[in-house]
Amino acid sequence: MIQAPCLPPLACLSFSGLPIPMTKERLIPLIVATALFMENMDSTVIATSLPAIAADIGTSPLTLKLAITSYLLSLAVFIPASGWTADRFGARMVFSIAIGVFMIGSIGCALSQNVTHFVIARILQGMGGAMMTPVGRLVLLRSIDKSALVNAMTWVTVPALIGPVIGPPLGGFITTYFSWHWIFLINIPIGLLGIFMAMKYIDPIKSEDPERFDLYGLVLAGIGLAGIAFGLSVAGLGLLPWPIVAGLVAIGTISMTLYVMHAKRTGSPVLDFSLLRLSTMRASIIGGFLFRLGIGALPFLLPLLMQEGFGLSPFQSGLVTFASAVGAMGMKTLAARIIRAFGFRYMMTVNAVISAIFLAACALFTVTTPLMLIFIILVVGGFFRSLQFTAINTVAYAEVEPAQMSRATTLVSVNQQLAISAGVAVGAFSVESTMLYHHVTELNADVFPPAFIVVAIISAVSAYFFWQMPDDAGHEISGRKAVEISSRKGAEKAATKAASEGTEDARDQRLG
Fold first, then answer.
1. Among 300, 353, 340, 345, which Cα is nearest to 486's?
2. In terms of CATH architecture, what is 9-213+268-497?
3. How many CB atoms neighbour CB 45 within 10 A?
4. Which DSSP letter does residue 67 get?
């Protein structure tokens, strides 16, 4: 176990010459954040550079969204095996190998010469990412006490948000002044550092008695997720005939139905839907899916609007769109306090609506809108969106028992990636529908507002499911329970004192 006051040299930070001890509550989240850093930076770099990549390999930006959806699809297919793999072979080893696979996929992206090569390399990245994020989260949940989970999640997400901050401007700069091929090589030194830190500082967490691997369930779930996600992602692009698209979705739906029936009969399902009986998990899964679906379209739509609609260069577009991550980073120091002050239920309900409003505000952007105003709206919106993500990611595990953590992280990760994939598909489909309605064949600024409105409405609907949580949802992990107990004791003490004073006043009156 990692203990204070100080770990080996790399585990200590120093500011103004004063060493800051890195306890496990800080160091382990920072190591896990290495994986999130790569994934977040990679996705934002691609979103910013999408038009340039599409032009270079001879396809359209909307068609190249297959590179985004294929990655997310690969995540969804392979994530179900992550929990069992970590229990069987050890979370540290699986986490490190996953980072290595992601790095190999990044090199493949850099060397791609056409859309087929690019999509294959993105699928390989997805295989690595499928293990990195859920296994890293499992390491965190098994290493950190629930009472410190909100702060630990903050430490995880702050470094991960640096990726979106430097990703768009750095990717735009490289794409504008060099070549997009080089943007993927940024992952190599980061990945090597992550592997070194994981092998050195993470304990080899391994289950004493791993469950039987549900291969049949994995096949059913994989076919189901692949059919639904891929079918929806190509719908409207004209890449495949409509009967084939409908067939993919139908096969996926049938396969998922068969999986749900199978999961009820097995004791170790790869996706354990019985966890949805927990109110906090149910809200995180259903409400979180809708919220992420709306927000997930933003990194896809915004760079296209800036470049194709407003005529900005990738570098200029990156400087504008990274504003969301700036606001997100500013929130992280306040997340725990806000959640503790208001509680998960009230905060998440109100904040979902606020976040949706700022998402809808993007529909008002025109070529004449001052960039500073756009920047401010994105910064403030990023603040509220990041607060919601922290709450969703934390409250999911409020009622989960330690023995169920592997299944919980797997279910949450699959849901998260499918939501983002669906968000990209819905955003692109909305743009394509608007183009068809207005009989235009080229992207312009006028075809984007309806898409922002659609995804904002979907995101706002999530508030209903957050409101369904009990009043005391997640109080144990937020610290809200302690605050209420303290307030109750203070009120009781005050009432006792008032009663005592009242008795003394009555006694004085009688004596008088």
1. 340
2. Up-down Bundle (1.20)
3. 29
4. H
Specify which residues 13 forms β-bridges with.
20
* CB-side neighbour CA atoms (13 Å) of 206: 8
Residue-wise pLDDT for 376-394, tens only, equals: 898 898 889 888 988 898 8
3-class DSSP state for residue 246? Answer: helix
Query: Quick one: average pLDDT of 288-295?
Result: 89
Distance between CA atoms of residues 12 and 473, nearest Å:
35
What stretches of 438-479 show up as alpha helix (H) in DSSP? 449-467, 475-478
In terms of Cα–Cα distance, which of 30, 298, 42, 45 is closest to 158? 30
- Res. 493 pLDDT band, cuts 50 70 90: low
Give the Cα separation of 161 and 44 in Å (integer).
11
Q: How far apart are CA 51 and CA 427, in angstroms?
A: 16
Q: Burial code of 481-510, b = ≥16 C-beta within 10 A, e = fewer?
A: beeeeeeeeeeeeeeeeeeeeeeeeeeeee
Phi-psi region of 12 (alpha: psi -120 to 50; beta: other; left: phi over 0): beta
Instruction: Check: pTM over 0.85? Answer yes or no.
Output: no
In contact, 46 and 53? CB cutoff 8 Å: yes
Domain extents in the chain:
9-213+268-497, 214-267
Q: What are phi and psi of 20, to 5 degrees?
A: -110, 115
DSSP string, 33-68: HHHHHHHHHHHHHHHHHHHHHHHHHTS-TTTTHHHH
Residues of the chain with pLDDT > 70, as a percent, come to: 79
Helices (H) and strands (E) counted in the chain, each on its own, are 21, 2
Q: How confident is the model at residue 461 (pLDDT cuts 50, 70, 90)?
A: very high
User: How many Cβ atoms are within 10 Å of 324's Cβ, its own excluded?
Assistant: 29
**Is the pLDDT at 237 greater than 60, yes or no?**
no
CA–CA separation, 487 vs 490, rounded Å?
A: 5
Contact (Cβ atoms closer than 8 angstroms) between residue 411 and residue 285? yes
Distance CA 172, CA 177 (A): 8
Q: Using a pLDDT cut of 90, give the percent of the chain over it.
A: 14
Q: Which residues pair with 14 in a beta bridge?
A: 19
Pairwise CA distance, residues 220 & 255, whole Å: 5
Q: CA-to-CA distance for 463 and 323, rounded, in angstroms?
A: 25
